Amino acid sequence: MFMHVLNSQEFTKTSAHLATFANDPIQMKLNSNQLVRKAASTTGLLLILLLAAFTLCNYSSLKLSPLPYVHVSGGAATASRETATSPVNERKAGAEAGAVCDVAKGEWVPDPAAAPYYTNETCPLIDSRQNCMKYGKPGLESILRWRWQPRGCNLPRFHAAAFLRLVRGKSMAFLGDSVARNHMQSLMCLLSKVEFPTDTEPKDCIHCTRKYHYRAHNFTVCVFWTPFLVRWNLMRAGGQQFMDPHNLFLDEADPEWTRDVAGYDYVVLNGAKWFTRPTVLYEGGRLVGCSDCGGDPNATAAPTLPPHYAVRVSFRTALRALRENPGFRGTVVVRTVAPPHYENGKWYDGGNCLRTRPMRSNETGLPETEAAFYAAQVDEFQAAASAAAAGRFLLLDISEMMQMRGDGHPGQYGHWPHEGVGFGIDCVHWCLPGPVDVWNELLLHLLKG
Protein backbone atom coordinates (compact mmCIF):
# COMPACT_ATOMS: atom_id res chain seq x y z
CA MET A 1 0.00 0.00 0.00
CA PHE A 2 1.37 3.40 -1.03
CA MET A 3 0.92 6.69 0.99
CA HIS A 4 1.37 10.26 -0.41
CA VAL A 5 2.95 12.77 1.99
CA LEU A 6 1.84 16.46 1.58
CA ASN A 7 4.53 19.14 1.13
CA SER A 8 4.27 22.54 2.90
CA GLN A 9 2.56 24.37 0.01
CA GLU A 10 -0.03 21.62 -0.43
CA PHE A 11 -0.65 21.58 3.29
CA THR A 12 -1.27 25.44 3.33
CA LYS A 13 -3.62 25.27 0.36
CA THR A 14 -5.59 22.41 1.88
CA SER A 15 -5.94 24.28 5.15
CA ALA A 16 -7.36 27.33 3.35
CA HIS A 17 -9.97 25.20 1.60
CA LEU A 18 -11.04 23.72 4.89
CA ALA A 19 -11.43 27.19 6.38
CA THR A 20 -13.65 28.29 3.46
CA PHE A 21 -15.86 25.24 3.93
CA ALA A 22 -16.28 26.10 7.54
CA ASN A 23 -17.51 29.67 6.73
CA ASP A 24 -19.81 28.71 3.82
CA PRO A 25 -22.19 25.81 4.64
CA ILE A 26 -23.58 25.59 1.08
CA GLN A 27 -20.16 25.53 -0.47
CA MET A 28 -19.17 23.03 2.17
CA LYS A 29 -22.08 20.77 1.25
CA LEU A 30 -21.35 21.00 -2.50
CA ASN A 31 -17.69 20.36 -2.10
CA SER A 32 -18.28 17.63 0.44
CA ASN A 33 -20.31 15.76 -2.17
CA GLN A 34 -17.42 16.14 -4.59
CA LEU A 35 -15.01 14.93 -1.92
CA VAL A 36 -17.14 11.84 -1.30
CA ARG A 37 -17.16 11.04 -5.01
CA LYS A 38 -13.41 11.57 -5.23
CA ALA A 39 -12.84 9.49 -2.13
CA ALA A 40 -14.93 6.66 -3.52
CA SER A 41 -13.00 6.79 -6.76
CA THR A 42 -9.68 6.83 -4.93
CA THR A 43 -10.75 3.96 -2.65
CA GLY A 44 -11.72 1.86 -5.64
CA LEU A 45 -8.37 2.48 -7.25
CA LEU A 46 -6.57 1.54 -4.04
CA LEU A 47 -8.57 -1.69 -3.78
CA ILE A 48 -7.59 -2.61 -7.35
CA LEU A 49 -3.93 -1.90 -6.59
CA LEU A 50 -4.09 -3.96 -3.37
CA LEU A 51 -5.71 -6.88 -5.19
CA ALA A 52 -3.04 -6.80 -7.87
CA ALA A 53 -0.26 -6.72 -5.26
CA PHE A 54 -1.81 -9.61 -3.33
CA THR A 55 -2.10 -11.73 -6.50
CA LEU A 56 1.50 -11.01 -7.44
CA CYS A 57 2.78 -12.02 -3.98
CA ASN A 58 0.87 -15.32 -4.03
CA TYR A 59 2.05 -16.11 -7.52
CA SER A 60 5.63 -15.62 -6.35
CA SER A 61 5.07 -17.96 -3.40
CA LEU A 62 3.62 -20.64 -5.68
CA LYS A 63 6.76 -20.54 -7.79
CA LEU A 64 8.93 -20.99 -4.66
CA SER A 65 6.88 -23.95 -3.36
CA PRO A 66 5.92 -26.25 -6.26
CA LEU A 67 2.94 -28.55 -6.00
CA PRO A 68 3.57 -32.17 -4.95
CA TYR A 69 4.22 -34.71 -7.66
CA VAL A 70 3.49 -38.44 -7.50
CA HIS A 71 6.42 -40.85 -7.62
CA VAL A 72 5.53 -44.44 -8.50
CA SER A 73 7.81 -47.21 -7.25
CA GLY A 74 7.06 -50.90 -7.18
CA GLY A 75 3.42 -50.35 -8.03
CA ALA A 76 2.81 -48.00 -5.08
CA ALA A 77 2.18 -44.29 -5.53
CA THR A 78 4.14 -42.13 -3.11
CA ALA A 79 3.41 -38.43 -2.61
CA SER A 80 6.55 -36.32 -2.35
CA ARG A 81 7.99 -32.85 -2.97
CA GLU A 82 10.90 -31.99 -5.19
CA THR A 83 12.40 -29.97 -2.34
CA ALA A 84 12.19 -32.88 0.17
CA THR A 85 15.41 -34.66 -0.85
CA SER A 86 17.01 -35.40 2.52
CA PRO A 87 16.99 -39.06 3.75
CA VAL A 88 14.88 -38.04 6.75
CA ASN A 89 12.22 -36.48 4.52
CA GLU A 90 12.32 -39.44 2.14
CA ARG A 91 11.75 -41.90 5.01
CA LYS A 92 8.93 -39.76 6.37
CA ALA A 93 7.28 -39.40 2.97
CA GLY A 94 7.58 -43.14 2.30
CA ALA A 95 6.12 -44.06 5.67
CA GLU A 96 3.24 -41.61 5.33
CA ALA A 97 2.33 -42.91 1.89
CA GLY A 98 2.68 -46.58 2.83
CA ALA A 99 5.54 -47.19 0.42
CA VAL A 100 7.05 -50.68 0.36
CA CYS A 101 10.43 -50.84 2.11
CA ASP A 102 13.04 -53.60 1.81
CA VAL A 103 14.04 -54.08 5.44
CA ALA A 104 16.92 -56.36 4.38
CA LYS A 105 18.87 -53.41 2.94
CA GLY A 106 20.44 -50.89 5.27
CA GLU A 107 23.19 -50.25 7.80
CA TRP A 108 23.95 -50.90 11.44
CA VAL A 109 23.85 -47.59 13.27
CA PRO A 110 25.00 -46.72 16.81
CA ASP A 111 22.28 -46.68 19.45
CA PRO A 112 24.12 -45.70 22.67
CA ALA A 113 20.92 -45.39 24.71
CA ALA A 114 19.66 -48.88 23.83
CA ALA A 115 19.81 -51.69 26.35
CA PRO A 116 19.67 -55.39 25.39
CA TYR A 117 16.24 -57.01 25.52
CA TYR A 118 17.50 -59.53 28.09
CA THR A 119 20.68 -60.66 29.84
CA ASN A 120 22.09 -64.00 30.93
CA GLU A 121 20.59 -63.28 34.35
CA THR A 122 17.05 -62.59 33.11
CA CYS A 123 16.95 -65.44 30.56
CA PRO A 124 18.03 -68.91 31.75
CA LEU A 125 17.31 -70.36 28.28
CA ILE A 126 20.61 -69.27 26.73
CA ASP A 127 22.80 -72.10 25.48
CA SER A 128 26.01 -71.93 27.49
CA ARG A 129 28.10 -71.89 24.31
CA GLN A 130 26.45 -68.63 23.21
CA ASN A 131 26.50 -67.01 26.68
CA CYS A 132 29.02 -64.30 25.84
CA MET A 133 28.11 -62.28 28.95
CA LYS A 134 28.98 -65.17 31.24
CA TYR A 135 32.38 -65.74 29.66
CA GLY A 136 33.33 -62.08 29.38
CA LYS A 137 33.54 -61.43 25.64
CA PRO A 138 35.57 -58.19 25.26
CA GLY A 139 33.71 -55.17 23.94
CA LEU A 140 30.29 -56.77 24.40
CA GLU A 141 28.87 -53.62 26.01
CA SER A 142 29.41 -51.64 22.80
CA ILE A 143 28.63 -54.60 20.49
CA LEU A 144 25.08 -54.66 21.90
CA ARG A 145 24.48 -50.96 21.27
CA TRP A 146 23.84 -51.03 17.54
CA ARG A 147 20.51 -51.34 15.76
CA TRP A 148 19.56 -52.25 12.22
CA GLN A 149 18.42 -49.25 10.17
CA PRO A 150 16.78 -50.19 6.85
CA ARG A 151 17.10 -47.71 4.00
CA GLY A 152 13.92 -45.69 3.64
CA CYS A 153 12.00 -46.84 6.73
CA ASN A 154 12.34 -47.97 10.33
CA LEU A 155 12.21 -51.50 11.77
CA PRO A 156 10.21 -51.50 15.03
CA ARG A 157 11.78 -53.01 18.11
CA PHE A 158 10.58 -56.44 19.18
CA HIS A 159 7.45 -56.40 21.32
CA ALA A 160 7.05 -59.65 23.26
CA ALA A 161 3.40 -59.13 24.20
CA ALA A 162 2.49 -58.30 20.59
CA PHE A 163 4.24 -61.43 19.31
CA LEU A 164 2.48 -63.66 21.83
CA ARG A 165 -0.89 -62.12 20.97
CA LEU A 166 -0.21 -62.86 17.32
CA VAL A 167 0.64 -66.53 17.94
CA ARG A 168 -1.88 -67.26 20.69
CA GLY A 169 -3.28 -70.76 20.20
CA LYS A 170 -0.75 -71.49 17.43
CA SER A 171 2.54 -73.30 16.92
CA MET A 172 5.89 -72.57 15.27
CA ALA A 173 8.58 -75.01 14.12
CA PHE A 174 12.20 -74.19 13.30
CA LEU A 175 13.73 -76.60 10.78
CA GLY A 176 17.51 -76.75 10.46
CA ASP A 177 20.78 -77.09 12.29
CA SER A 178 22.21 -75.54 15.47
CA VAL A 179 21.88 -72.03 14.02
CA ALA A 180 18.13 -72.68 13.81
CA ARG A 181 18.27 -73.58 17.50
CA ASN A 182 20.26 -70.37 18.13
CA HIS A 183 17.43 -68.45 16.40
CA MET A 184 14.72 -70.17 18.45
CA GLN A 185 16.56 -69.54 21.74
CA SER A 186 16.81 -65.86 20.84
CA LEU A 187 13.04 -65.83 20.36
CA MET A 188 12.41 -67.58 23.68
CA CYS A 189 14.65 -65.10 25.52
CA LEU A 190 12.81 -62.21 23.89
CA LEU A 191 9.48 -63.69 24.97
CA SER A 192 10.72 -64.32 28.53
CA LYS A 193 9.85 -60.72 29.32
CA VAL A 194 6.21 -61.88 29.29
CA GLU A 195 6.27 -65.65 29.88
CA PHE A 196 8.68 -68.56 30.30
CA PRO A 197 7.97 -71.81 28.44
CA THR A 198 7.82 -75.36 29.72
CA ASP A 199 10.09 -77.96 28.12
CA THR A 200 7.49 -80.51 27.05
CA GLU A 201 10.01 -83.16 25.94
CA PRO A 202 13.07 -82.80 28.19
CA LYS A 203 16.13 -84.37 26.58
CA ASP A 204 19.77 -84.46 27.56
CA CYS A 205 21.10 -83.93 24.08
CA ILE A 206 22.55 -81.26 21.80
CA HIS A 207 21.62 -82.29 18.29
CA CYS A 208 18.03 -83.35 18.72
CA THR A 209 14.46 -82.12 18.33
CA ARG A 210 13.19 -80.00 21.26
CA LYS A 211 9.69 -78.70 22.02
CA TYR A 212 8.45 -75.96 24.40
CA HIS A 213 5.00 -74.70 25.39
CA TYR A 214 3.78 -71.29 26.57
CA ARG A 215 0.81 -72.25 28.67
CA ALA A 216 -0.72 -68.80 29.23
CA HIS A 217 -0.83 -68.20 25.47
CA ASN A 218 -1.24 -71.82 24.33
CA PHE A 219 1.74 -71.36 22.01
CA THR A 220 4.12 -74.18 21.11
CA VAL A 221 7.59 -73.68 19.67
CA CYS A 222 9.83 -76.48 18.45
CA VAL A 223 13.18 -76.99 16.74
CA PHE A 224 13.55 -80.03 14.49
CA TRP A 225 17.16 -81.18 14.20
CA THR A 226 17.53 -81.58 10.44
CA PRO A 227 20.88 -80.13 9.30
CA PHE A 228 20.38 -80.97 5.61
CA LEU A 229 16.54 -80.77 5.47
CA VAL A 230 16.63 -84.02 3.45
CA ARG A 231 17.27 -87.59 4.56
CA TRP A 232 20.90 -88.22 5.50
CA ASN A 233 23.21 -90.60 7.34
CA LEU A 234 26.90 -91.05 8.04
CA MET A 235 28.83 -93.07 5.47
CA ARG A 236 30.66 -95.02 8.14
CA ALA A 237 29.13 -96.51 11.30
CA GLY A 238 30.50 -94.77 14.35
CA GLY A 239 31.70 -91.77 12.37
CA GLN A 240 31.79 -88.27 13.79
CA GLN A 241 29.04 -85.96 12.59
CA PHE A 242 31.30 -82.94 12.33
CA MET A 243 34.11 -84.52 10.29
CA ASP A 244 33.08 -87.71 8.50
CA PRO A 245 31.36 -87.86 5.11
CA HIS A 246 27.55 -87.94 4.92
CA ASN A 247 25.18 -89.55 2.45
CA LEU A 248 22.49 -87.10 1.29
CA PHE A 249 19.33 -88.28 -0.44
CA LEU A 250 18.47 -84.99 -2.09
CA ASP A 251 14.97 -85.83 -3.32
CA GLU A 252 13.72 -87.24 0.02
CA ALA A 253 12.68 -84.80 2.73
CA ASP A 254 13.98 -85.69 6.18
CA PRO A 255 11.40 -87.81 8.06
CA GLU A 256 12.66 -86.23 11.31
CA TRP A 257 10.40 -83.27 10.51
CA THR A 258 8.01 -84.47 7.79
CA ARG A 259 6.24 -86.93 10.09
CA ASP A 260 5.29 -84.24 12.63
CA VAL A 261 5.13 -80.91 10.80
CA ALA A 262 1.53 -81.16 9.59
CA GLY A 263 -0.05 -79.54 12.63
CA TYR A 264 2.17 -76.45 12.77
CA ASP A 265 0.97 -72.95 11.87
CA TYR A 266 4.42 -71.53 11.05
CA VAL A 267 7.60 -73.17 9.81
CA VAL A 268 10.91 -71.26 9.82
CA LEU A 269 13.27 -73.16 7.53
CA ASN A 270 17.01 -72.94 6.91
CA GLY A 271 20.08 -74.99 6.21
CA ALA A 272 23.56 -73.99 5.09
CA LYS A 273 26.68 -74.63 7.16
CA TRP A 274 26.50 -78.46 7.15
CA PHE A 275 26.63 -78.51 3.35
CA THR A 276 30.30 -77.51 3.47
CA ARG A 277 31.14 -80.93 4.97
CA PRO A 278 32.11 -83.96 2.85
CA THR A 279 28.91 -85.26 1.25
CA VAL A 280 27.95 -87.98 -1.19
CA LEU A 281 24.82 -87.09 -3.15
CA TYR A 282 21.99 -89.34 -4.31
CA GLU A 283 18.87 -88.62 -6.36
CA GLY A 284 16.29 -91.16 -7.46
CA GLY A 285 18.21 -93.90 -5.66
CA ARG A 286 21.43 -93.41 -7.65
CA LEU A 287 24.72 -91.68 -7.00
CA VAL A 288 24.87 -88.33 -8.79
CA GLY A 289 27.96 -86.69 -7.33
CA CYS A 290 29.93 -85.73 -4.30
CA SER A 291 31.38 -82.68 -2.61
CA ASP A 292 34.76 -83.09 -0.86
CA CYS A 293 34.13 -86.83 -1.09
CA GLY A 294 36.38 -87.87 1.75
CA GLY A 295 38.37 -90.49 -0.14
CA ASP A 296 35.52 -92.98 -0.49
CA PRO A 297 36.38 -95.17 -3.51
CA ASN A 298 32.77 -95.40 -4.68
CA ALA A 299 32.10 -91.70 -4.29
CA THR A 300 35.28 -90.49 -5.97
CA ALA A 301 34.11 -92.10 -9.21
CA ALA A 302 31.14 -89.70 -9.22
CA PRO A 303 31.42 -86.16 -10.58
CA THR A 304 32.42 -83.47 -8.10
CA LEU A 305 29.57 -81.04 -7.43
CA PRO A 306 29.81 -77.72 -5.59
CA PRO A 307 28.12 -77.48 -2.16
CA HIS A 308 25.51 -75.04 -3.45
CA TYR A 309 24.15 -77.75 -5.75
CA ALA A 310 23.08 -79.78 -2.73
CA VAL A 311 21.68 -76.66 -1.02
CA ARG A 312 19.55 -75.88 -4.06
CA VAL A 313 18.10 -79.37 -4.45
CA SER A 314 17.56 -79.84 -0.71
CA PHE A 315 15.63 -76.58 -0.43
CA ARG A 316 13.57 -77.51 -3.48
CA THR A 317 12.70 -80.85 -1.91
CA ALA A 318 11.84 -79.39 1.52
CA LEU A 319 9.69 -76.57 0.12
CA ARG A 320 7.85 -78.97 -2.17
CA ALA A 321 7.21 -81.32 0.77
CA LEU A 322 5.68 -78.45 2.75
CA ARG A 323 3.60 -77.21 -0.16
CA GLU A 324 2.25 -80.66 -1.02
CA ASN A 325 1.73 -81.96 2.53
CA PRO A 326 -2.06 -82.36 2.80
CA GLY A 327 -2.00 -81.79 6.56
CA PHE A 328 0.12 -78.65 6.52
CA ARG A 329 -1.75 -75.40 5.89
CA GLY A 330 0.63 -73.03 7.61
CA THR A 331 2.99 -70.23 6.62
CA VAL A 332 6.58 -71.02 5.57
CA VAL A 333 9.36 -68.56 6.39
CA VAL A 334 12.61 -69.19 4.51
CA ARG A 335 15.60 -67.73 6.36
CA THR A 336 18.66 -67.06 4.21
CA VAL A 337 22.20 -68.08 5.09
CA ALA A 338 23.88 -66.51 8.13
CA PRO A 339 27.56 -66.25 7.17
CA PRO A 340 30.38 -67.36 9.50
CA HIS A 341 33.26 -64.95 10.12
CA TYR A 342 36.48 -66.90 10.56
CA GLU A 343 39.50 -64.76 9.74
CA ASN A 344 43.13 -65.88 9.37
CA GLY A 345 42.14 -69.54 9.19
CA LYS A 346 39.32 -72.05 9.61
CA TRP A 347 37.65 -73.20 12.81
CA TYR A 348 40.17 -76.00 13.22
CA ASP A 349 43.45 -74.21 12.34
CA GLY A 350 43.60 -70.90 14.17
CA GLY A 351 40.78 -68.91 12.59
CA ASN A 352 39.08 -66.40 14.88
CA CYS A 353 36.56 -63.55 14.97
CA LEU A 354 37.95 -60.68 17.02
CA ARG A 355 36.08 -57.68 15.64
CA THR A 356 34.37 -55.39 18.14
CA ARG A 357 32.12 -53.31 15.88
CA PRO A 358 30.01 -53.80 12.73
CA MET A 359 31.28 -53.16 9.24
CA ARG A 360 29.43 -50.99 6.74
CA SER A 361 27.73 -52.42 3.67
CA ASN A 362 30.38 -50.98 1.34
CA GLU A 363 33.20 -52.58 3.35
CA THR A 364 32.21 -56.23 3.00
CA GLY A 365 30.19 -58.71 0.98
CA LEU A 366 29.17 -62.35 1.15
CA PRO A 367 32.04 -64.79 0.53
CA GLU A 368 31.79 -66.91 -2.62
CA THR A 369 30.39 -70.01 -0.90
CA GLU A 370 27.75 -68.11 1.09
CA ALA A 371 26.82 -65.99 -1.94
CA ALA A 372 26.13 -69.19 -3.90
CA PHE A 373 24.09 -70.59 -0.98
CA TYR A 374 22.11 -67.35 -0.80
CA ALA A 375 21.35 -67.37 -4.54
CA ALA A 376 20.17 -70.99 -4.38
CA GLN A 377 17.94 -70.32 -1.36
CA VAL A 378 16.32 -67.23 -2.87
CA ASP A 379 15.77 -68.94 -6.24
CA GLU A 380 14.03 -71.90 -4.62
CA PHE A 381 11.98 -69.62 -2.37
CA GLN A 382 10.77 -67.64 -5.38
CA ALA A 383 9.85 -70.80 -7.26
CA ALA A 384 7.90 -72.15 -4.28
CA ALA A 385 6.16 -68.84 -3.60
CA SER A 386 5.04 -68.50 -7.22
CA ALA A 387 3.42 -71.95 -7.07
CA ALA A 388 1.54 -71.28 -3.81
CA ALA A 389 -1.13 -68.91 -2.53
CA ALA A 390 0.01 -65.33 -2.01
CA GLY A 391 1.61 -64.79 1.38
CA ARG A 392 2.06 -68.46 2.21
CA PHE A 393 5.84 -68.35 1.63
CA LEU A 394 7.83 -65.49 3.18
CA LEU A 395 11.53 -64.62 2.89
CA LEU A 396 13.49 -63.71 6.03
CA ASP A 397 16.53 -62.19 4.35
CA ILE A 398 19.29 -61.73 6.93
CA SER A 399 22.43 -62.47 4.89
CA GLU A 400 23.65 -58.98 4.03
CA MET A 401 22.97 -57.51 7.46
CA MET A 402 24.71 -60.40 9.25
CA GLN A 403 27.73 -60.31 6.95
CA MET A 404 28.45 -56.93 8.58
CA ARG A 405 28.37 -58.41 12.11
CA GLY A 406 31.58 -60.38 12.51
CA ASP A 407 31.64 -58.94 16.03
CA GLY A 408 28.54 -60.87 17.09
CA HIS A 409 29.97 -64.39 17.52
CA PRO A 410 31.20 -66.00 20.75
CA GLY A 411 34.66 -66.72 19.34
CA GLN A 412 36.59 -68.23 22.25
CA TYR A 413 34.10 -66.82 24.77
CA GLY A 414 31.60 -69.69 24.72
CA HIS A 415 33.48 -71.54 27.44
CA TRP A 416 36.20 -71.05 30.07
CA PRO A 417 39.78 -70.99 28.75
CA HIS A 418 40.75 -74.18 30.62
CA GLU A 419 37.81 -76.18 29.24
CA GLY A 420 38.59 -78.61 26.45
CA VAL A 421 35.76 -78.36 23.92
CA GLY A 422 35.57 -79.61 20.36
CA PHE A 423 34.39 -76.30 18.93
CA GLY A 424 36.86 -74.07 20.75
CA ILE A 425 36.52 -70.92 18.63
CA ASP A 426 32.95 -70.36 17.46
CA CYS A 427 32.50 -67.83 14.65
CA VAL A 428 29.34 -69.57 13.36
CA HIS A 429 26.75 -69.19 16.13
CA TRP A 430 25.69 -65.88 17.67
CA CYS A 431 25.96 -64.38 21.14
CA LEU A 432 22.74 -64.16 23.17
CA PRO A 433 21.85 -61.36 23.52
CA GLY A 434 23.36 -60.08 20.30
CA PRO A 435 22.78 -59.17 16.64
CA VAL A 436 20.81 -62.41 16.15
CA ASP A 437 17.91 -60.80 18.04
CA VAL A 438 17.17 -58.67 14.98
CA TRP A 439 16.07 -61.86 13.19
CA ASN A 440 13.04 -61.93 15.45
CA GLU A 441 12.35 -58.23 14.94
CA LEU A 442 12.19 -59.10 11.24
CA LEU A 443 10.13 -62.23 11.92
CA LEU A 444 7.52 -60.24 13.83
CA HIS A 445 7.51 -57.63 11.06
CA LEU A 446 6.89 -60.34 8.45
CA LEU A 447 4.14 -62.13 10.36
CA LYS A 448 2.28 -58.89 11.04
CA GLY A 449 2.27 -58.32 7.29
Automatic annotation (TrEMBL):
Keywords: Disulfide bond, Glycoprotein, Golgi apparatus, Membrane, Signal-anchor, Transferase, Transmembrane, Transmembrane helix
Cell compartments where the protein resides: Golgi apparatus membrane
Residue ranges of domain Trichome birefringence-like C-terminal in the record: 155-445
Top-level division of the source organism's lineage: Eukaryota
Pfam families listed in its UniProt record: PC-Esterase, PMR5N
Transmembrane segments: none
Annotated GO MF terms: xylan O-acetyltransferase activity
GO cellular component terms listed in the entry, alphabetical order: Golgi membrane
Residue ranges of every copy of the Trichome birefringence-like N-terminal domain listed in the record: 101-154
Principal location class: Golgi
Cleavable signal peptide: none
InterPro entries: TBL, TBL_C, TBL_N
Mode of membrane association: Single-pass type II membrane protein
Similarity field: Belongs to the PC-esterase family. TBL subfamily.
Protein name as catalogued: Trichome birefringence-like N-terminal domain-containing protein
